[in-house]
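Board work, copied verbatim: Beta-tubulin
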Amino acid sequence: AAFWQTISGEHGLDGSGHGGNTENKEEADACLMGNNSYNGSSDLQLERMNVYFNEANGDKYVPRAVLVDLEPGTMDAVRAGPFGELFRPDNFVFGQSGAGNNW
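↓ predict structure ↓
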């Protein structure tokens, strides 16, 4: 999820996949340093948005990703995190039990 947090910040998206219209250089720099409060609408940020994101309803962007794990607890942790709303629920693929003691 840290990758998506960084990419979202670079493209001016918040944790729910929405962009804003604040164009403040100090806030943009803070975003790149790990503070994801900047929500920009710069043409440069929107230029290659489709590389990592698909546009959904209501000016929301969702990652072009499928999250896969054998243990559902890991996926629950991602969903409960600050960027859990970013992902589509049907893009989570997990097993019902972990792979513990499979060796």
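Strands lie at 53-56, 60-63, 67-69, 92-94.
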